[in-house]
Specification:
single chain; 177 residues; alpha/beta; Rossmann fold; six-stranded parallel β-sheet; 7 helices; 38% helix
Length: 177
């Protein structure tokens, strides 16, 4: 039986790119991610995550520490960026109310021993990308997990590089560093 390959796009949403938590470095990786999606082989399964908060965001622990309402469900800021929306429409999407997705990790538990590779791209390297990469690694300790540095952006270039180093230390393979 062939082993499965996955390509995961983390939180490429309007609020992280041009909205409430605007990130110019994130905008710069959109074209690269689109190119990667266009050239995936037909056997690679595509997954998107979507940071998803509710109107009560400011009362949450995250809202207390990051008091900028963002990615409120069903708002324009919550939507996947227009440049990648067609790919998201055909992909499995995990909405998550925090940095890492427990549901995404549980999804991968069913694939133990059947994974060729899991590759992650998206924003922010130092928050949601690293959180999801580590959660996936925890349920797939023997799988090849990759993060494509060229397809990621951190809150700052320094925190992006720190997150890449932390992932390397946890045996997550960093591409294009």
């Amino acid at each position: 039986m062939d082993k499965e390959k996955f390509f995961i796009v983390i939180d490429m949403q309007n609020d992280f790119l041009t909205g409430a938590l605007k990130n110019d470095d994130g905008v710069q990786v959109i074209g690269y991610i689109k190119e990667r999606l266009e050239h995936l082989d037909g056997d690679t399964k595509v997954i998107f995550t979507r940071d998803t908060h509710q109107e009560d965001y400011m009362t949450t622990e995250e809202g207390q520490n990051l008091p900028v309402p963002h990615c409120i469900e069903n708002t324009e800021g919550w939507e996947i960026t227009e440049e990648l929306a067609e790919y998201a429409a055909e992909a499995k999407i995990f909405n998550k109310n925090t940095f890492g997705s427990k549901e995404l990790a549980k999804y991968f538990e069913a694939y133990e021993g059947e994974i060729e590779s899991v590759e992650l791209v998206g924003v922010c390297t130092d928050i949601c990308v690293i959180s999801n990469a580590l959660l996936i690694k925890s349920v797939l300790p023997n799988a090849k997990i990759y993060v494509d540095a060229k397809g990621c952006a951190g809150v700052t270039p320094e925190s992006h590089n720190t997150a890449l180093a932390a992932m390397k230390a946890c045996h997550i393979h960093v591409l294009n560093a």
